[in-house]
Design brief:
- The chain is an alpha+beta fold.
- It is 34% helix and 26% strand.
- The chain has an eight-stranded mixed beta sheet, with helices on both faces. It has a five-stranded mixed beta sheet with strand order 12-11-13-15-14, sandwiched between helices.
Length: 261
C-alpha cells in the first residue's frame, strides 16, 4: 500500500503547478477554443496545457498508475487511479470570472483516497486523505450536523445540454422554496469544498462527471460530511449530493421529491 502522505504530496504539488500555469494566463486572450458536448461546452489551450503538466508530473513519479482526465480521457484500474480535472470551471475562466480550480484525486479499490482542489484566484488549497482528515491550508476542516433544511444555503449547477438544463431548472423550482437560498457558482469541485468548509451547507447537481467531483468528495467525507450518488432521474444522468451529516437526509428527500414528473 503506497504511503497516502506521499500521494497527497504529489497531488498537491501537481495542483499548485497547474494552478500557477493557469493564473498566468487568466484574463488574457483565449486560444485553441473548441466545442465539446455542445456548442456552449468549451475547451481551450489553457485546459490542455494544465492537463499536460498534471499528467506529466503524475506519470513521472507514478508510471504504473491509471489516469482518468477530462480532456484526454483514460480510465481507472485495479490499483491506484488518478482522476484529474485540469480546469474545473472553464466557462468562468474564459469569461474572467474568478471561480475555477484544479482538481486532483487519487483512488484505490475502496474509493477516494486523496483529494486536492486548488483555487489559484483565492490562493486556497483544499486537501484531504481518507480517514486522516481534511484541511484548507493548514486549518483542519470539521463539519457539524448542519442547519435545518429551511436555513440551508445550497449550491447547484446546470449542464450544457439545453434539454437537461430545462429539467434541472424544473427540479430546482421544487427546492428553492424549502431552503434559505441557492447559489450557482460554476465549479462543482469548489462547490464541494465549500460544503466541507461551511460556505455552503449542501450541494446537488445532476450530470456531473467523475472528474468534476472525485477530489471534492474526498474532502467533504474527510471533513465529516456526506456525499451520495443519486440514480439518474428525468435529467437522464446520475446526480451527486453533498451536505453536513444532519442535513443530508432532508436535502436528499427534498431533491428526490422535486423531480419533474
Amino acid at each position: 500500500m503506497p504511503d497516502p502522505a506521499g500521494i497527497l504530496d504529489l497531488a498537491t504539488r501537481a495542483a499548485l503547478a497547474a494552478g500557477a500555469l493557469l493564473i498566468d494566463r487568466f484574463g488574457g486572450p483565449a486560444s485553441g477554443l473548441e466545442a465539446k458536448s455542445t456548442r456552449t461546452d468549451l475547451v481551450s489551450d489553457a485546459d490542455r496545457a494544465s492537463e499536460d503538466l498534471l499528467l506529466g508530473m503524475i506519470r513521472a513519479e507514478r508510471p504504473g498508475d491509471a489516469i482518468l482526465s477530462e480532456e484526454s480521457g483514460g480510465g481507472t484500474g485495479a490499483g491506484l487511479s488518478w482522476v484529474v480535472d485540469p480546469l474545473d470551471g472553464t466557462i468562468n475562466y474564459l469569461w474572467g470570472i474568478p471561480q475555477w480550480c484544479v482538481s486532483v484525486a487519487c483512488q484505490d479499490r475502496e474509493g477516494g483516497l486523496v483529494g486536492v482542489v486548488h483555487d489559484p484566484c483565492r490562493g486556497e488549497t483544499f486537501r484531504a486523505v481518507r480517514g486522516r482528515g481534511a484541511w484548507l491550508g493548514e486549518d483542519a476542516l470539521t463539519l457539524g450536523g448542519g442547519p435545518p433544511l429551511g436555513e440551508a444555503l445550497v449550491g447547484t449547477g446546470f449542464g450544457y445540454d439545453a434539454t437537461r438544463r430545462r429539467i434541472q431548472a424544473e427540479r430546482l423550482l421544487g427546492v428553492v422554496p424549502s431552503v434559505r437560498d441557492v447559489r450557482r457558482a460554476g465549479s462543482a469541485a469548489l462547490d464541494l469544498c465549500w460544503v466541507a468548509c461551511g460556505r455552503l451547507d449542501g450541494y446537488f447537481e445532476f450530470g456531473v462527471q467523475h472528474w468534476d467531483w472525485a477530489a471534492g468528495a474526498v474532502v467533504v467525507r474527510a471533513a465529516g460530511g456526506v456525499v451520495q450518488e443519486i440514480p439518474a432521474g428525468p435529467e437522464g444522468a446520475p446526480g451527486l449530493l453533498a451536505a453536513a451529516s444532519g442535513l443530508a437526509p432532508d436535502l436528499r428527500a427534498l431533491v428526490d421529491a422535486a423531480a419533474p414528473a
